[in-house]
Specification:
mainly alpha; three-stranded antiparallel sheet; 10 helices; 74% helix
Amino acid sequence: MAGARTRKLKPKSLMREVAYERFKAELFRRNLVPGQFVSQGELCELLDVPLGPTREALKRLEAESLVRLIPQRGIQIADIGVTLIHEAFEFRAILELAAVRRFAREADDATIARLERDTTDMLRRLDGGSNDDPKLIDAALQVDWGMHTMMIDAVGNRILGNAHRQNFDKIKMIRLHGRSPRYLPLAMEEHLKVIEALKARDPDLAAAALAAHFAGAERRALGL
């Protein structure tokens, strides 16, 4: 396994990036569980990356609050608690409410139409599918996440985009490990309300619809 994936990846900086991206991939595949403890050796084996680059990646992951490095105990995957959920949703509101106002003013009609089509199609698939189908759930999550990322990317601000990406990693972790798939149709319906406001080119209405979506999503994440 080790030779197949890492033989050609020589530079340490590249290997550090590989370790970082593979960690997040394993986290979002649910192969790493919030609150779980793992040793450096176990993590190196899972990621198929040598110890040095893995340690470097862990520093970045700790700075982004995805792991805690605990002496004598090892690496703890970030746990999902009330504080993390509240802070992650509060921060995304700060970033995305400004972005959706700008998106309502500046996005082209074709982009908004594509958002509506993708969301409507996914809602139809969810209504006719099974909540236990992992491929359908993953496809729905990609549509869900895609709208939020598109609005942030449209701003064209790299600092904003990086902040959103780091925070959205926490949102993904919260959703994947604590939220029932039965809520996905409701999330799609909330997205459609945002899209209706975008079609009307109403920044205030779009922000209000998105804020309502965030409030509902946070309550669902908290199990309320």
